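Sequence, structure tokens reproduced for reference:
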Amino acid sequence: MNTNEVILSEYTEKQVAFREFKNRLGVLLDETVRAGKLDVFDITTRLKSRRSLERKITESLDNLYPALHEVPDLVGFRIITFFQNEVDRVIDRLAQDFQVVKESWPHREIERNPEALGYPTGWAVIQLPAERLKLVEYERFVGFQAEIQVCSLMQHTWGRIEQHLGYPQDRFPVEMLREFTQLSYLFELSDGELNRVRKFLSPYNFDPKERETPKGITPPAPPLSSASQGTQASQPAPSTPSNRPTPDQKKSRAKKPPSPKPETITEPADDPIGVEEAKALDRVVLSGNEAAIDLESLELFILQNDMVRQIDRIIAAYYDTRLMYRQKSMERLLAAINDLGTIHTLADLEELLFKKRKLIPKVAKEILGDHNSREYGFVLKGVSLFLLAYIAVATTRDINIIGDFLENHSFDEKLVDRSNVRMLLMLDVG
């Protein structure tokens, strides 16, 4: 028999073993995705058929595959991420959990060389690590390899379109090549824009510097030295016609409401739920919006107010999860706010949120549980206001009022219901 016949014969004998290898590796890849908390859309797999293998080794040049173990993609997987910027996290995790034999990641070359063309999918050929191959259930897979492709959902879609048309970009008819290439650029551009949107919405990518001084917050002035403080105290600025306030200015200043005083909160040093981040809101400028609270104004407040967005991000990051918007939940929140009877305008809501801004992360931990013992697929956008409503009713210290409120406005019946009256009574809500 010639070399190709030997390869095909051996593959026929081992095809059952390769199928079992594929199944075992699929389970391990699923565990890798879960352990790495990777944002993956899907994992697809296939086992090369005998006919496909025959075509591959027959069409190869220079006797590229002299033996079966030299064929790297008898077993193949494709890991499809939602976003392009998640691809590198998957690649790094594969290198951590498996032995990488060889790899090719074109997107990294494009990052190094912006003039490089194309929108290709990267891949790695992997083997099981030596430690795992020592186990009885895996020892028969010594020398088995698999090709793992990693791509974004947009890349996967483009690849399927190329496959359906029957013409990959490097062999496309020249008459339409320019238009076809432009289409691939649109997919690549969409990937980049989705990355930007995700970064804006994701609590994980929130820059710590932004946490210290988020948008809409005035950073505190640098402290004065004792010498400069003394100089300013002993030498007040002279009153001149140019800096003396006019009667209108005096009238305006008299009407200006006093700024809310920052609250004091004592929190254990090992509590990681973002009290320090919430302190960055101490100097937030309140909008003073006197608009009445309805569903539309409440939705805009949740999506646009800097305090709400910041505290929501703190809570989502603590539970290592994402934020999600739900219309039905906004309707429940509106009903609860109206039932409180003390919040009538957005200014009322914003002022109470400011006063309780440092308590909300602490109450989140009390109600939602410790992040080491509880997992959430998501938390609601506006979760800070849901918790604020609980805080507001808890301040009444009236068991009947709290009980009725929970009975009528349990945002999550599995989480908080009438049986939690005692918990709210015991909350240190200030």
